[in-house]
Request: fold
Amino acid sequence: MNGIFRFEYEGGKVLGLDTGLSAEAFARSRLAFLAAGAGCIVFLRSSPAPQIEAWRPGGVAEIAAGGRPGPVMVIWGPDFAGLSLDEIITRGNDPASPNTPGALASLAAWVRARDALPQEGRPLPWPGAALVDEKAETVLFLPEAAVRRVFDAGGAGAWINGAECWTHPDYSGEEADAFAAAALLYRALSGALPYPGRSRDTLREDIREGVFIPPRLAAPGLLGEAASLITAALSPRPKLKAGRPRLADFARLFTAAAGNTGTDGSAAGFFRDISREERQALETERDRFLRKRSKAVKAKRFLRRNRAAILGVTGAALAAALAAGSVIQARLGGPSTRGMDGVTVVESYYQAITGMDHETAAACVAGGAGKDDINMITSLYVVSKVRQAYEAQTVFISPEEWRESGGGVPEKAVFGIDGLHLEGIDTDESDGRLGYRAEYLFFNPYPESGGDAAASPAGNESPAPPLPAGIPCSDELSLEKNKKGLWHITGIRRVYGR
Reply:
């Protein structure tokens, strides 16, 4: 990918990762820690068992990177001659590029290399963060934090191409690895992405629902074992009765395919010969499947998104009209970011956390951002109201109220954001995106989202709480402007401790 490249530095070749930031912006963003994160290189042919070595950045350099209007800070490290796996898979086996490794050989190497990594601390299975050499004998897994910055610098397209179209948003560990291997193998064998959506929300919705063309229809002639394994890995959990596939299953599939053809990485080992009539029949079935699936997916999503309205229609006509009017009125009078600039949206979000105003917090975000925060304050809001009903007193106070009361051991639980400091990372609104860093102290007497409080809503006296202590937090927030011109927070990356 464009953000990962080789260049000459201090008399030798090095590998560079483009942060997209000027020296001033890099220093202001406090990203020097990115040069300390280590990746790893897996050597597959040097001995019977893969050998793993650390790959550590050597530092940062300010250079003129391709396509950038001015010099940017680049994280550099030991040289590695290779391409990112997503680029290799997308190119396929290109006769015009004889030095480009084959897609299937590179994917087989990636599968073996990831399977050799220890489960503890294994990086996320982003193909854009893994480089494969031209002989498909060595795989470099770049430091995760540094690659995140490269993707951020490349924009939404870089995230989708290098990570999100290949990975499941809810999976982790072995399950996430197998899903990525299946998505990559699907593209290598069929020439098409299993999930071609370019909108992040639509893409994640398709992945979660398993909306893909079955491999046997996407790649006519594909052998049953390969088709079954890919389908099992890409299918949603409720639809799969057998156990989830593992990386070792894909490694065995590649070995069997190589045995069928005598050539490691050859696509021929995954296919059987089919007649013209059978191919035409499969193509006809594929077209019929697409038409049927399109209608089913649209109907399912319409029903899910409009469930309340549809249930209301089943009642009497008058009740339905009243319900519709109530919904419209509630939406018109509910919280919104209308008239807010980016900073105001961010400030309103953190104020809503302190005030346990889940409606305002939800109005400030989009695309699933802040889901855990909203769930937490919703839970604590309910706990607060239940306790007030039983005890006729306020349960929580804000950090500001606690300090104004003297700052000693409080009688009530202290909850909320204190000392909020905002710093602009990307303040250019022309592209419809903004970025901010928020630093603050987070006071939460119930770190497990209020579970302890909810256990005894009335009566049971608990021991006096200790002196409150805020947890230092640092959030990186991404904002986007929607079609109506409203700003919303679309991503929150949180680090505890500073």
Remarks:
- The two ends are 32 Å apart (CA to CA).
- Residues 276-305 form the longest helix (30 residues).
- Residues 94-100, 313-331, 449-462 have pLDDT under 50 and may be disordered.
